[in-house]
Amino acid sequence: MNIAVSILIPIAAISLVAASFNSRVETNAIPIFVNLQPQKDNADTIYWNQDRKLTWADFQGKAPETRWEKANTDAGISFATVQEGEIYKIKLLTMFAVKKSWTLTDDAYILSHEQGHFDITEIGRRKIRKALIENNCNEIPQDRMKKDIHKVEDIYRKGMDNMEKEQEKYDKETNHSIIVDQQKRWLEKIANDLKDLDKYAQID
Fold it and tell me: With 0-12 CB in 10 A as exposed, 13-18 as middle and 19+ as buried, what is 71?
C-alpha cells in the first residue's frame, strides 16, 4: 500500500453471512523516512477519516466465484517507524484496500455494517497508539531503538489480536447484520468508542 518497503502479512480472514471482513497488516521494523502529513486516498487505498465514509463505489475488487457473501471489506492497520533526528516515531494508519474489497449489492444497510468493520479497525489503531503512549514507546530515542522495537511489535500484535476478536464479536452478536436491533446497538457502541478514544486519533 502506501508505506515504502513495507511487508504485507495477511493475518486473518473471517467469513460472514451478509458480508465478509479480511484484515491485513503492513509492518516495517526497519526505521524509514515517510511523510508525517495525513495520507491521501489513492486508487488502491482509502485511509480512515471521520469525514469520509465508505461508498459502494469504493468496493472495486472482483468477488470470487466460490464466495456467496454479499460484500467483502479488506481493511487493516499499517505500522512503520519514522525517524526525526535522534527520535523514532511509531506511525499507524487505518487502511481500506479498494481493489481487494468487493460487493454484490448496493444495499445501504449492509454498507453501514461494512463501515462498522472499518471503524472497528480504526478503534483498534487508537487502542494500539494508547498502549504505545502508556508504555513510553510511541517515540523512541535512537539508543533505545533496538531494544524497544520488540516491545512495540508486541504491543502492535496484541492490539491486532484484540481488534480481530472485536470484529468477530461484532459479527456474532449482529449475526452479520441480520439482527437489526443488535446492528443498531453496535453502531452506537462503535461511535461511542471512537469518541472515547478521540485523544488517540492523531496519526503520529
Answer: buried
Which candidate, 5, 11, 16, 1, places its Cα nearest to that of 157? 11
Query: Which tens digit of pLDDT belongs to each residue from 88-105?
Result: 999 999 999 999 999 999
Q: Name the least confident of 5-19, 115-129, 183-197.
A: 5-19
Please report, for the chain, the start and end positions of each structural domain, with discontinuous segments joined by +: 7-200
pTM to 2 decimal places:
0.83
Among 18-22, 51-55, 109-113, name the one with the lowest average pLDDT.
18-22
For residues 20 and 38, give the distance between their C-alpha atoms in angstroms, rounded to a whole number. 28
Chain centre distance of CA 14: 14
Map grid coordinates 487505518 to a residue.
Answer: 94
Name residue, grid cell 531494544.
Answer: 147
Span 154-197, pLDDT tens digits: 999 999 999 999 999 999 999 989 999 999 999 999 999 999 99
Inter-residue contact 101 to 61 (CB < 8 Å): yes
Beta-carbon contacts of residue 131 (< 8 Å; ≥ 6 apart)? 155, 158, 159
Beta strand pairing status for 20-32 and 71-84?
Answer: parallel
Asked if 170 and 164 touch (Cβ cutoff 8 Å), the reply is: no
